[in-house]
Automatic annotation (TrEMBL):
GO biological process, one term: phosphorelay signal transduction system
KW Cytoplasm (keyword) present: yes
HTH araC/xylS-type domain: residues covered: 337-435
Ranges of residues in domain Response regulatory: 3-120
Coiled coil stretches, renumbered: 116-143
A Pfam family hit: Response_reg
The name this protein goes by in its record: Stage 0 sporulation protein A homolog
SMART domains per record: HTH_ARAC (SM00342), REC (SM00448)
């Protein structure tokens, strides 16, 4: 409901307007009345009405002065002038001062309703515009940090080409990279904890809180266990040894806090000093290589870390690579490896690109790009191929019906499964079974 204030020095006019108009049907409520301009301004300051109906000539403070003063206090208000004569020059001045429209004394109820209805319509449009702007602002405030993280991810993994647009983007997202250090933290013995994403979030916030007095901190998450921090010292400390000493002291505090509150062990490695965004990729590899060395000898609760697995990580390009003796030489990024493993474990369920992106801690857009770049196919094609290959195995067993196989590989519609199977194999499931026999 919109608030209406009636200002007129004639009581009969005020009462008449209050009573002859069905304000509720116009989505309005008369919040008060005033008998002159001075009282009217006091109530405008107090009540902030949406619509003010004001006599153009009153003792003390006339309508024109009220329009100017009201617009200063409530710019969005709709001011409707009451006048007993057609002094168009005077009305023109009122419109120029910000009046919405005028009502002649006397006027028909329909005419008054029409003017108020238009004022309400304008107010609704303005409210909608304000809400849209606020929604846009909220979206930008939400999106900018995500875009900033994506930009940092691209810089650290050397994904995007170094160009003028990238430089503009770093400024747009407030990602200025001057002198920095890369700190990589890996959480160990996390298998014993549920809801790791919550702990992950808490650890990031704890580090930012501990470092924020002397450092600017940005971060990305490689997976649930590994977080990369870009730490930039503020100008107050310039000596490199002093900076590294402060970083390491704060790191000891952080590790103690994590162990005490989260019961996690952590392994961390710090790069040497870097300068400028061009060095981010090289310094991250340096920190991860140092982390690798620590992880090779790290033991928790008498359970050794999988050394062979750690040695299969080639940090020259931050990618996972199979042993050199393997017939398959192609390497895939750690993110894609995690995505592929997730699909392998969950293809029997309905899964989407968003599900996999959430699991790998990257945006769905970025993961889609990574699938095309690393595997030469999009996410949907890869998921379908996994399901079809598994379906072939079940069909060869000869005792599964087609609809059963469809359900076993995560496709609930048997007809769609048959179409998909023929698309990828050139045969219907029945033809494939016959040929296999």
């Amino acid at each position: 409901m919109f608030n209406v204030l009636i200002v007129d020095d004639e009581a009969i006019i005020r009462k008449g307007l209050r009573n002859i108009v069905d304000w509720e049907s116009l989505q309005c409520i008369v919040c008060d009345e005033a008998c002159d301009g001075v009282e009217g301004m006091e109530k405008i300051k107090k009540l902030k009405p949406d619509i003010v109906i004001v006599d153009i000539k009153m003792p003390g403070l006339n309508g024109l002065e009220m329009i100017v003063n009201t617009k200063e206090i409530i710019p969005h208000s709709k001011i409707i002038i009451l006048t007993g004569y057609r002094d168009f020059e005077y009305l023109k001045k009122a419109i120029q001062c910000g009046a919405f429209d005028y009502i002649l004394k006397p006027s028909k109820v329909d005419d008054i309703n029409s003017i108020v209805r238009r004022a309400v319509s304008e107010l609704e449009k303005e409210e909608e515009t304000v809400e849209q702007m606020q929604s846009l602002k909220r979206n930008i405030e939400t999106t900018i940090p995500l875009l900033k993280q994506k930009m940092l991810y691209d810089l650290l993994f050397n994904v995007s080409a170094k160009n003028e647009k990238q430089l503009k983007d770093t400024k747009l997202y407030d990602l200025q990279i001057d002198e920095f250090y890369i700190l990589v933290i890996r959480i160990e013995n996390s298998d014993n904890h549920d809801n790791m994403s919550m702990y992950h979030y808490g650890i990031i916030n704890s580090l930012v809180d501990i470092y924020s007095d002397l450092f600017i901190v940005d971060h990305i998450s490689i997976n649930e266990e590994t977080i990369v921090f870009v730490i930039q010292p503020v100008p107050d400390i310039r000596d490199d040894e002093e900076i590294e000493g402060v970083i390491k002291n704060k790191l000891r505090t952080l590790k103690k806090l994590i162990k005490e509150y989260y019961s996690f062990e952590t392994v961390a490695a710090l790069s040497g000093k870097g300068s400028g965004r061009e060095e981010l990729h090289r310094k991250m590899k340096e920190a991860i290589a140092a982390l690798d060395e620590k992880l090779l000898n790290f033991t928790i609760d008498n359970k050794n870390i999988d050394i062979d697995k750690m040695r299969s990580i080639d940090y020259r390009d931050c990618e996972y690579r199979k042993d050199e003796g393997s017939s398959e030489k192609r390497s895939t990024s750690l993110i894609i490896r995690n995505a592929v493993e997730y699909i392998s474990d969950n293809y029997t369920n309905p899964i989407s690109l968003n599900d996999v992106a959430e699991h790998t801690y990257v945006s769905s857009y970025y993961l889609s790009r990574m699938f095309t770049k690393e595997l030469g196919k999009n996410f949907v094609d890869y998921l379908n191929e996994v399901r079809i290959e598994k379906a072939k195995e079940y069909l060869k067993e000869d005792y599964h019906k087609t609809y059963e196989v469809a359900d076993m590989v995560g496709i609930k519609d048997p007809h769609y499964f048959s179409k998909l199977f023929k698309k990828y194999t050139g045969l219907t499931p029945s033809e494939f079974k016959d040929k296999a026999d």
